[in-house]
Write a structure and sequence with these properties.
By secondary structure, the chain is mainly α. The protein has one domain. It contains 9 helices and 5 strands. Strand 4, helix 5 and strand 5 (117-118) form a beta-alpha-beta unit. Helix 1 (10-25) runs antiparallel to helix 5 (102-111) and helix 8 runs parallel beside helix 9 (201-213). Bound molecules: zinc ion. Zinc ion (ZN) binds next to helix 6 and helix 7.
Length: 214
């Protein structure tokens, strides 16, 4: 059989497929133990730093749901996800780098062609989605959660401890940061109730800060 990659030597082709798989095996136990041991503590630190109270504990799973299990692109690229239908956080052990394991993390990063992430940041981000979802439910009138606001809140929860976070989320983070920094829980409530509707980021922030100062 000829494949579309017929021109590539077989060893290059096979390593392209096998290396991420091997990388994904490295340090899975470390990552899982880290998440299970630190989730409660991280939530407490988020509460103190951001000025919120979490709504109980989310479920945490390390197994991909049926819908994504056979999707190779998702398996390779998604480090974490939150499912609002059952308040469950998914953490990918394949892409997880664990704090305190620099050498293993580096090997994993190389084998996975850079597609790996610090698991503490991923967990912190997904806890932000959990909080926004539960706050929305408790408010009762913010069902359509807008992407920029939702990802901004989640990324704020990821960077509450001063960590760099994921640069791909910078625009969302920058959008919500001044509002949450100054107003904590009330700021988050405002963002969820009044998502941006086309105005520029600066105008939106100014309007939010004006409304919250009243
Ligand atoms: Zn997110």
């Amino acid at each position: 059989m000829r494949s579309r990659f017929g021109g590539l030597p077989a060893y290059i082709l096979s390593s392209l497929l096998i290396l991420p798989g091997v990388g994904g095996m490295i340090g899975r136990g470390d990552a899982r133990r880290y998440v299970e041991a630190s989730a409660t503590q991280i939530m407490k630190e988020q509460e103190d730093a951001i000025g919120i109270s979490h709504f109980g504990q989310p479920e945490i799973t390390f197994e991909l749901s049926e819908a994504y299990r056979y999707n190779p692109a998702f398996r390779l690229s998604v480090a974490g996800a939150y499912d609002r239908r059952n308040d469950t956080i998914f953490i990918s052990l394949s892409s997880a780098e664990t704090p305190g394991h620099p050498i293993r993390n580096r090997v994993k990063r190389i084998l996975r062609f850079g597609s790996s992430e610090d698991v503490s940041g991923v967990l912190q981000h997904e806890l932000g989605h959990f909080y926004a979802d539960k706050l929305c439910e408790s408010l009762g009138d913010c069902h359509s959660v807008q992407t920029a606001v939702n990802e901004g809140i989640a990324e704020y929860f990821s960077r509450f401890d001063g960590s760099r976070g994921n640069w791909e989320y910078d625009p969302y983070y920058d959008l919500v940061r001044p509002v949450i920094e100054r107003h904590g829980r009330d700021g988050i409530e405002y963002l969820l109730r009044n998502p941006p509707a086309g105005s520029g980021a600066i105008a939106y922030q100014n309007e939010a800060l004006r409304a919250l100062a009243k």
